[in-house]
């Protein structure tokens, strides 16, 4: 006879088992197969051509996933491709988040419900103009860890992550009745290195994570295939407009038996702060797409729909000398624009796909409408200086990662015995610093402009030196990835003398709505608060052209960054971020002035460069 405790526990165990079954069961009871054989892709043993488009669930409000998937189907696509961003799902070691907008399994299920297959790109490295290429910043807390290498500490962390991801999505592979037909091993590794043992490590971790019921493959530029591919897996190639014929010719010399697929066809490009918005040649791209499909090759268009790098998730580029942070918008000049509207490029591609497949696509759905919001004033403020947390004291400035911080700002503070005149020199600024002496702005040191020093003249015998530093986006591509710690790197000197004894204030910029705001004027680094009322939420674009440099939140949701240098001057606000009635806005502006106004536009502003000095 069971004890009373056992009788009480039994229903709980049954319920838990049922929940696990519902969560992990495949999306369909019909099991299929997808593999590369005989120089082609085979779906259930029959030749199959992939016509896919990339979009990232984390860049699209969950409420719009199905809308965007239907748009993909209506363009004639038979699959969608998505990266999985490790940093979004494991913000702290061993702490995982697959909820809400990060419910990748639900995104995959919705794709299947809309008649689309899925190509999954789990990394662990993504690139994608996403912060740190998708790596979590906590990997950099250990100064000896080398990411994207055979460093045992990195491999152990990547293994834990991929095994956990497998619990979410491995049951959704095509061999289990789901829509995932292919899973990428790493990502364009040949552009980074040529360590095939590392690639085999990642390959076998994915197998251990359960990715055995879909086709594994690698992706590289055509010239990098020998460096980044594995002989036992299909190799697809990535390229941009005008490169199709020569790239496939190179692939044929390396992989004469195929299969042949363009894993990323770059139908647009991304934007950097201070540079023009990408506007690419749709006719050239349409001609390339037509040629690829006429050969019978497979393709994934990068991006079909870019969406938005909400919050602090934009990446950056660096060639070792020049640092170029990306804007918040990931419009990418893609077929479906940032807010989900078909472009002329979408219609061109749609016609070419129908012509080559002979399959009429479904009607194009109606895209969500955008509307304006009347101007409202940022009428309440709170000074950053009055809302600092307790500092951490150290001899040398700490990196953001050393303080268990991923994004936002760090304030470094020390005391100077003056008078002294000379250069304030920093070994390296990652990424953007405003320097204050006794509370007054003395100048800026900007990694983007290769700046390392600032002349200072301090007259007082006892001065406070503040360096307010912003993470404007860790580099997501290239050899500098392992060195992308954020902070004042390499020490600080004034007039040739090292500065020591620092207070480090961690400012991760979690939603600051709980600060005490007042109508008192506030200039400089300030938080501003306002509200507006609407009857019915619609998509809108928050006009940030009156602001300086900083971030915006609406109803606790971080929208992203603004910067007066452009080219982006309005932030996409999807209707699901709004609510009927009162909506709350918080702005942090390094260059704040009281009384500035914001408004909602019914169109984006993506190409508004300004001559204003940075």
How would you portray this structure in words?
The protein is of the alpha/beta class and 614 residues long. The chain has three domains: 324 residues, TIM Barrel; 97 residues, Sandwich (Jelly Rolls); 120 residues, Galactose-binding domain-like (Jelly Rolls, Sandwich), CATH 2.60.120.260. It is built from ten helices and 33 strands. The strands form seven sheets. The chain has an eight-stranded parallel β-barrel with strand order 4-5-6-7-8-9-10-11, surrounded by four helices. It has a six-stranded antiparallel beta sheet with strand order 16-26-17-22-19-20, with no helix packed on it. The chain is globular, with a radius of gyration of 26 Å. The N terminus is likely disordered.
Detail the topology: elements first, then pairings.
Blueprint: H1 4-24, E1 34-37, E2 40-43, E3 46-47, E4 51-54, H2 65-74, E5 79-83, H3 86-89, H4 104-113, E6 117-121, H5 152-169, E7 180-184, H6 196-208, E8 215-221, H7 225-228, E9 235-239, H8 244-254, E10 261-266, H9 282-294, E11 298-302, E12 316-318, E13 323-325, H10 344-357, E14 373-377, E15 380-383, E16 392-394, E17 409-417, E18 420-430, E19 432-437, E20 440-446, E21 453-458, E22 462-470, E23 475-477, E24 487-494, E25 497-498, E26 502-507, E27 524-534, E28 540-543, E29 549-554, E30 557-563, E31 570-573, E32 581-592, E33 597-601
Helix pairs in contact: 5-6, 9-10
